[in-house]
Amino acid sequence: MIPDKAPKEDVFHGSEDLKRNAHVPSFEKYKELYIQSVENPAEFWGAVAKDFFWKSQHTGRFLDYNFDVTKGEIFVKCMEGATTNICYNLLDLNVHERKLGDKVAFFWEGNEPGDELTVTYRELLQMVCQFSNVLKSQGVKKGDRVSIYMPMVVELVVAMLACVRIGAVHSIVFAGFSAESLCERIMDSQCSLLITADGFYRGEKLINLKLLADEALQKCRDKGFLIQTCIVLKHLSTDPEALVSSHSPPAKRPCPDLEVPWNPDVDLCWHKLMKGASDECEPEWCESEDPLFILYTSGSTGKPKGVLHTVSGYMLYTATTFKLVFDHQPDDIYWCTADIGWITGHSYVTYGPLANGATSILFEGLPTYPDVSRMWDIVDKYHVTKFYTAPTAIRLLMKFGNEPVQKYKRKSLKVLGTVGEPINPEAWLWYYSVVGEKRCPVVDTFWQTETGGHVLTPLPAATPLKPGSATFPFFGVVPAILNESGEELEGPSEGYLVFKQPWPGVMRTVYGNHQRFETTYFKKFPGYYVTGDGCSRDKDGYYWITGRIDDMLNVSGHLLSTAEVESALVEHKAVAEAAAVGRPHPVKGESLYCFVTLKDGLIFNQTLEAELKKQVREKIGAIATPDYIQNAPGLPKTRSGKIMRRVLRKIACNEKDLGDISTLADASVVDQLFQNRCCSAV
């Protein structure tokens, strides 16, 4: 599985200084620790657990599980019997035991340059305790679900940590998602309360978040589900009370057009509630396997899955992956550009960094606003040492050449990271050579919402690097590659990527639907966790992710379900049938190419195309807006009626070699679809 010696070709190493001080300083040390983590996980993870506070110790096996559906219910349990509180370990422990109260937890950088804020660990603890008391005053208790729909402000971190301090379960919804998506997630997790903001700027664009939140709550009411309370942060407000009591300053840019609707029966002002709240709040001690949070990810059936993570295992895993993958050192300034609405923001903006007492950048803006040098300006401003971003952002900035990067020094950078999708070698080499000046190792991390943290990744000083490879497994992770028959392939091979045993941070279930959890991840190959991704392994044992095998798309590092997009399209009164496929995109990785069959007598035109794009945007969010919509009088189907998406992908890419299409019920539709291809999709 792991080669005896590190390969000597196609390799890129970090500086000698980094190697001298690294937590895992060599390939030999990596291999030694890896073998221990797999053969004796209790010893390996038990040593990690000693760095944290436990109100009571675990009883029984450290890590217990069943991955085989033929042998009973699927389960994973870590440190069963132990009790702790993750907020206590992230804040109280750092302030009171590690004496880091005056250390900066976050440098907040707003959308507008110069809109900034510094928050120490002590200040963060005080705000979290205050908001914990606010939640308790609203009747929120252990086990309740709380929906959070906020921009990238400090109060978002405060809200999520306040939930976990009192044992409530947060469900964060990305602020770029639509009212329909928010409604669906609130109802699925039966949330008792919503936390949102008035609005925010995303580059030049003003987002009226409160309007979307109100629309979502109305949709919930229409479906018979009532949320009694919505707490509103006045982020863009010029309300003097908001200015006095909020840590996040309002955006510098005036927003006279922002109308904030207010329902006194439901809406409560964040700032008024915080004003009278005590800054002392005892943590609720939770069992190791108590729910920590629910985060929704797209499912191949179209209905998003509520991925459930639990307290102790997730804490241990995110803390350890952060520490080792980024080789965290006490004086680091770390910046992950992800939004907290995604799993990367949960694990590597909030939980992992704070568990290590790290100083992080919290960024509200865009990499191209107000100009394409914004990221490198921030790197120099705060002397960022570890930088973690998406291949989409790297490819976008590559288009503007080297000059916007090279006009800034970037001398502080030591480790670069990528996340969200496989990175193409060309973008990897630009990132390594131009951004990192060939002195910063690139940690190209593979993981999922479901895995909780990195599962295939290089380690900065220990692993020789190959551009575009996810490299080797993290500690405790045992990958395998299977063929269609479920047989494990040895040596250089390509097939389904699976994992043979759990690690502490893996998801525990799909919220409210354990059967779906078992069917999605364990039914196809009993005894294995099935990632849904294809993978190849080269002669040196390096793993390379080849992309999704199921009907999923990876657009700008975010997973979208083709079924979800198709469902949004067919809700339009003009559409009889729809199919969505991915098409390679030089910046986003994949773009969305949709085929629609209209109802009899209707004509496809630009007006209808605009309506359909708007419909998808409103149902799912802007990120799911189709790049291309093609009129399709007929779709390629088998005799049993199944749409052959493989053929549609070929048509979207204008590739005439279709392979075997003998099972098509009507092959003539293929020629028609090629003739009707979108003109701009060359």
UniProtKB/TrEMBL annotation:
Start and end residues of each AMP-dependent synthetase/ligase domain: 98-509
Protein origin, superkingdom: Eukaryota
A Pfam family that the UniProt record links to this protein: AMP-binding_C
MF annotations from Gene Ontology: acetate-CoA ligase activity; AMP binding; ATP binding; propionate-CoA ligase activity
Chain ranges of the AMP-binding enzyme C-terminal domain: 564-642
Keywords: ATP-binding, Ligase, Lipid metabolism, Nucleotide-binding
Domain Acetyl-coenzyme A synthetase N-terminal: 30-89
Single Gene Ontology BP annotation: acetyl-CoA biosynthetic process from acetate
Quaternary assembly: Monomer. Interacts with TFEB. Interacts with the 'Thr-172' phosphorylated form of PRKAA2. Interacts with CREBBP.
UniProt similarity note: Belongs to the ATP-dependent AMP-binding enzyme family.
NCBIfam families linked to this entry: Ac_CoA_lig_AcsA (TIGR02188), PRK00174.1 (NF001208)
The name this protein goes by in its record: Acetyl-coenzyme A synthetase
